[in-house]
C-alpha cells in the first residue's frame, strides 16, 4: 500500500470515528478562483510537428464543502465545489510552420471539465471561541477530466475533427486559511489550496493519435460563508 492510500485510509477512518463524539457539522458555500498553472510537453505522434502544446486557462466556480469536527482543533472536510469547465489555449512555437498555423497560437482550441473532490484533515489554531481561527490542512485530491471538446480552431490545427481524453489523477493536497466567526452558527472563511495533479492528454484526429504529458500546480482561492449545526 502506497503513501497516498495510507493517507486516504487514515482520513476515512477519522471521518468514521467522528459521529461517536457528537461534534459540530459545518456546511460552506462560496466561490473559488481556480488557477491551473499548467505546464505541458510538446505533443508527439504521427505527422506532428515540434512546438505544439497547450495552456489551461483560469476559471471561477461555485464552491461548497462539508466539515465534521473531531474535536476543537481537528476536523475532516470534504471539498467538492461545482466542476469548472476550462478553456484550453493552444501554443504554437515553431517558425517552420505556415503562418496560418502560427496564427492559431493563443487561441482557445478546446474545453475540458474537471471534477476534483478533495478530502482534508484540518488543524485549527486558537480556541473555538476565538473570532479569528487560522487553519492548515492536508489531504488527498482526486481529479477526473471529462466533457472534453475540440472547436474549429483546434480541429484546424490538428487537421480535422478531433476527440480529446485526459487520464485521471490522484495526489497530495494542502490548504491554509482563516475563519472569522460571525456568530455561533455563521462564519466566513478564506483559504488557499493546492494539489499534485498530473495527466496525459490524448487527441485523436481521423485515427491519428497524439499525446502530451501535462502537470498542474493549481492555486485555488476560496471565499465561503459557513453554517454550523
Secondary structure tally, helices: 3
| Strand content range | over 45%
Helix fraction by DSSP (H/I, runs of at least 4): 10-25%
What pattern of helices and strands is seen along the backbone? HEEEEEEHEEEHEEEEEE
Structural class: mainly beta
Question: What does this protein structure show overall?
Answer:
With 229 residues, this protein is mainly β. The chain has a single domain (3-228), classed as Porin, CATH 2.40.160. 11% of the residues lie in helices and 59% in strands. The protein has helices at residues 3-17, 99-102, 152-158, and strands at residues 25-35, 38-40, 52-56, 59-69, 74-79, 85-92, 108-115, 118-124, 132-150, 162-166, 169-181, 186-195, 197-205, 208-216, 219-228. The strands form 2 sheets. An 8-stranded antiparallel barrel has the order 1-4-5-8-9-11-12-15. The radius of gyration is 21 Å and the shape is elongated.
Layout of SSEs?
Elements: H1 3-17, E1 25-35, E2 38-40, E3 52-56, E4 59-69, E5 74-79, E6 85-92, H2 99-102, E7 108-115, E8 118-124, E9 132-150, H3 152-158, E10 162-166, E11 169-181, E12 186-195, E13 197-205, E14 208-216, E15 219-228
Antiparallel strand pairs: 1-4, 1-15, 2-14, 3-6, 4-5, 5-8, 6-7, 7-9, 8-9, 9-11, 10-13, 11-12, 12-15, 13-14
Keywords:
mainly beta, elongated, 15 strands, 3 helices, Porin, four-stranded antiparallel β-sheet, 229 residues
Amino acid at each position: 500500500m502506497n503513501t497516498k492510500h495510507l493517507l486516504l485510509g487514515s482520513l476515512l477512518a477519522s471521518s468514521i470515528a467522528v459521529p461517536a463524539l457528537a461534534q459540530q457539522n459545518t456546511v460552506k458555500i462560496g466561490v473559488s478562483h481556480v488557477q491551473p498553472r499548467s505546464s505541458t510537453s510538446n505533443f508527439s505522434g504521427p505527422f506532428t510537428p515540434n512546438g505544439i502544446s497547450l495552456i489551461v486557462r483560469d476559471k471561477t466556480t461555485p464552491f461548497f464543502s462539508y466539515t465534521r469536527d473531531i474535536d476543537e482543533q481537528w476536523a475532516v472536510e470534504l471539498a467538492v465545489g461545482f466542476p469548472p469547465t476550462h478553456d484550453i489555449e493552444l501554443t504554437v512555437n515553431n517558425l517552420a510552420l505556415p503562418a496560418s498555423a502560427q496564427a492559431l497560437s493563443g487561441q482557445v482550441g478546446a474545453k475540458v471539465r474537471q471534477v476534483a473532490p478533495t478530502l482534508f484533515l484540518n488543524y485549527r489554531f486558537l480556541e473555538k471561541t476565538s473570532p479569528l481561527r487560522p487553519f492548515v490542512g492536508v489531504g488527498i485530491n482526486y481529479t477526473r477530466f471529462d466533457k472534453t471538446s475540440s472547436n474549429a480552431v483546434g480541429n484546424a490545427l490538428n487537421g480535422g475533427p478531433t476527440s480529446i481524453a485526459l487520464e485521471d489523477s490522484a495526489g497530495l493536497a494542502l490548504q491554509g486559511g482563516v475563519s472569522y466567526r460571525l456568530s455561533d452558527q455563521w462564519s466566513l472563511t478564506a483559504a488557499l489550496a493546492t494539489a499534485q495533479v498530473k495527466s496525459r492528454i490524448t487527441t485523436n484526429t481521423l485515427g491519428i493519435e497524439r499525446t502530451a504529458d501535462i502537470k498542474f500546480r493549481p492555486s485555488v482561492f476560496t471565499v465561503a460563508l459557513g453554517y454550523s449545526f
